[in-house]
Each structure stands twice: as structure tokens, then as C-alpha cells.
Amino acid sequence: MSNIKIIKPRVARETQDLQTLSKEELIARIQKLESHVTQLRNLLNPKLTSNKQGNKPGSKVFDHKKYAKRHVLLQVAYVGWDYAGFVVQEHTEKTIEAELFKALEKTRLVESRETSNYHRCGRTDKGVSSFGQAVSLDLRSNLSEGKGVFVPDGHQAKVGNTDEIAYVGILNKVLPPEIRVVAWAPVNKTLSARFDCRQRTYHYYFPMANLDIQSMKVAAQYLIGEHDFRNFCKMDVGNGVIKFHRRIIDIQIEAIDNSANSYSMIRLELKGQAFLWHQVRCIVAILFLVGQGKEEVKIIQELLDVESNPRKPQYGMASEVPLNLFSCTYSDEDCQWIYDAETFQYVISGYQMLWTENIVKATMLREMLDSLEKLAGIKIENQLKGLVHGIEPKTYLPLMKRQKCESLEERINAYAKRQRIEVTETKNASA
């Protein structure tokens, strides 16, 4: 690592590049950035401002300046299987974040995303679910004082009110059935859902199949503590991620039900302060190989030894469908979640409908499988097929003998080369 010279902040690199550009090149760069900003604004505000909150022609425009604001945390649960991920994306509106802000604007709890002081705790990918995603933002408030309440310049507070807006109930009435707000908490104005989170807990669910769960438990213990996890993630050098040390606080693998057959469901619980891109799914994929007897327990130690093994062997990640960001934890002093019985009844009832739909399908398939196995007189323990991406080879090739990905140094050099080419092309285009 001592020979790497490109570990400079991206802003510093860009500033240095800009100083070498001519006036015409700078104008072209500014025009390009302005076009990109306009594109992003259109993404966040796809409709005209006058109509984005559903105002009918001739109706009175809602005046946010008649209210104070309150900085809060929201606990957001969602079944993400049919969504393109949590974060807003340019090519689709089918994201959790997009639906959340539609609801926030429709209920007039925020005027716009840009003015909401918004932070998210986790960036869950396509197909990933959550029970405890947390977001922090400024919402409209009925109060004039209290934790997190403030009056922006030009605003006026509702004096004399003692009841806060029923944030959770209002939002759940307009959110899609897969997405629910479970609780809210008033917090100090400086608290960030992302940067002040003390612990993130992920759950991953899978059938026992033919797995040796005990071997997986032994292997998992080597992951606990602070390590360089570059061989257990997808490197994101393009976004400035060049350090891969993370600390896993605990990892547990336990049966969910009391049955002991290949259809029994297992839960892997992984706790840490922060995680790398695809880190959990890579960890699960390797533990599956250990549980299937294809790799020894020591493979975990070998992959964590980045001095001896700086290049990640190629392997398929575990599926995103069983992954759940189950909780985001904050200090009790910072955050006291507020729950209410009416919300629980509404959320439980809605998720019971989703559970019924899926358990009926699972039960039907299980009965068909039982009948097939009786007719064939055999037991097939192939339930894991489909939970790991990639084509399963006929002959298994051990991880450490497989083709390796680029090392961190090679990725950084490749990225730097691409940046130099882009700058050269920009100069030539404006010449």
C-alpha cells in the first residue's frame, strides 16, 4: 500500500484538474454540471411545484410557513422484494425512498426533499427488505417547543397546541402496503440517521437443506472483530471507498423453528457498526460453501489475511431476497421511540395479509413436494439452489484455486487512468 499515490480526496483531485483548464473548457464543464443539476431536480420533483401535492386548480396552496418544524427519526419497515432498492434512482420510481417522499409531500409533512434535512441509515439494494430502517428529517410540527422543535426564519409556530401531528398514522394511510412507518422519535436537530447510528443488525433467512450448521457457526466466529473485509464485499473504488476495515460485533446462526429437517428455516444474525457494499451477502455465500462441505472452516481466516491473499477469488453472492436490515440502534439519550397501539394494529393487520398470501403459497408447494418425494421414494436436499447467484459448475473448484479479481491497487490505478482519459476527452471536445 505504500506505493499508492492516488489516495487523495476526490474534491482535491478535481480542483487540481480544474486549474489546468482554459476558460472555454471551464464554461463547458459548468454547462455540463448545470444540465446534471436540472436533471436531478426533475427527478426529485417530477411534477410542477404547484401540483406536486395534489392541489386542484383554484384550491388554496398549503402554507408551510404557518408551522414550526421538528427534527425526528422515523423507523421504516418494508418488504423490498419487488422494489429496485431503497435509494431514489433516475431510471425508475419503484424505490422505497421515492414512495416515502411521495407520502411525505402528499401529507404536507415536508415541503420538499431538498429542504427536509434528510439522512438515511442504510442503502439497501434491490430486493432487500427492512424492519428497522431509520431516516432523519425535519417534519411539519403542531408545537412551538419540545425536543427537536424549531421555527425557521419566516415561519411561525402554532402557539398553545399540546398534541403533535400523528406522523405515523398519517403516513401509513398513504404508503403502499409493503411499506410502513412503525415508530417515530423526536431528536436533536443535529442528529443524523446515518452518522449517529451505533449498530446495524442484519438478518438472513435460509433453509437448513444439507448444510452442516455447526461448521458454519465455527467458521462465523472468525469474522467477529475488526478485519479488512475486502475479500467479502464488492469494491467501490469509484465512490472513494479504499479502506475496508470494519468491525463485526456478533454473529449468530440459529434455527427459527423446532423441526429438524431440510425444510427447517435458519436465521443468521449479523451485528456491526457499519458494513461494506454487499458484505453480508458475500459472507453468507462463503458460509454456505463451508456448510456444504465444499470449503474448510479455515477459508474464513485465509480470506481475511489480505497480506497473503490481496485479490478476491471469484464467487457468486448470496441472494438478496432473504436479507433484512432488521434494526438500526441509537443511544437511549439520543432516541426514545414512540409507539402506539393503533399503529401496531394497522401495521400488523397489513403485514398479516402479506404473510397469509406467501405462507399459503409455501404450504401448497411443501405439500406438493412431500407427495413427489413419497412417490419417488427419495429425499432431495437441494433447497439452497437459487440462493446463490451464478452458475453451479459440475465439478467444484476450491475458492483459492479460482481466478482472482483485481487487487485494490490495480483498481485504484485503473480508476485513475479512466479519470485521466475523461479529462483528456473533455479538453479535446472543447478545443
TrEMBL record:
InterPro entries: PsdUridine_synth_cat_dom_sf, PsdUridine_synth_TruA, PsdUridine_synth_TruA_a/b_dom, PsdUridine_synth_TruA_C, Pus3-like, TruA/RsuA/RluB/E/F_N
Pseudouridine synthase I TruA alpha/beta domain residues: 219-331
GO cellular component, one term: nucleus
Pfam assignment, any one: PseudoU_synth_1
GO BP annotations, alphabetical order: mRNA pseudouridine synthesis; tRNA pseudouridine synthesis
MF (Gene Ontology): pseudouridine synthase activity; RNA binding
Keyword Methyltransferase: no
Alphabetized UniProt keyword annotations: Isomerase, tRNA processing
Annotated HAMAP family: TruA (MF_00171)
Family to which this protein belongs: Belongs to the tRNA pseudouridine synthase TruA family.
Protein's UniProt name: EOG090X083V
Organism: Daphnia magna
Gene expressing this chain: EOG090X083V
